[in-house]
User: What shape does this take?
Amino acid sequence: KNQVEQSPQSLIILEGKNCTLQCNYTVSPFSNLRWYKQDTGRGPVSLTIMTFSENTKSNGRYTATLDADTKQSSLHITASQLSDSASYICVVSAGRGSTLGRLYFGRGTQLTVWP
Amino acid sequence: DTGVSQNPRHKITKRGQNVTFRCDPISEHNRLYWYRQTLGQGPEFLTYFQNEAQLEKSRLLSDRFSAERPKGSFSTLEIQRTEQGDSAMYLCASSRSQGPLYEQYFGPGTRLTVT
Assistant: This one.
């Protein structure tokens, strides 16, 4: 069964601190893995996207890693800001090419940054 | 605004009523997706269109749900005889269909509350 599991379910950190969110998946065949940020009441916004051959990608203070062998990914946020408070969703795309591209979503990690 | 738009943003309805939501994708995108998201969960795939053709429907899409994209541009999602379990955020996304790394851009969602 194609699944995406995220941990922790929620996380509270102080402004300025770093944190790491985890994602494990069983989706096969694998195409790519994305991390989305979703603010409350809004649609998800893409942060990073990685293919099988990529093991790290950065977008500002966000750095995602991918280990396709162990089927694990992490999202590291450095120097957190209050605006980082949101749900971070790990999404795995199945299939190859553009023929299918079904997305499998994790439940998200709810991050709260306190001043 | 050249992003994905959805209307209405919020809808409150009584059980048994019919509701219709609209999604306007990014103009050059020929794929359009509908997702449902309940509190604390990641989005769940409902259906998607390539141009005006509805190519896939999830088992989540019961007979009370119908989606259309008559001219390959905007799409509507109708729920007939709404039930309290239909209360959720309904997200629309659009993408190009070419290339394995197509990006799905999400709209802000329509939050449905069935009383």
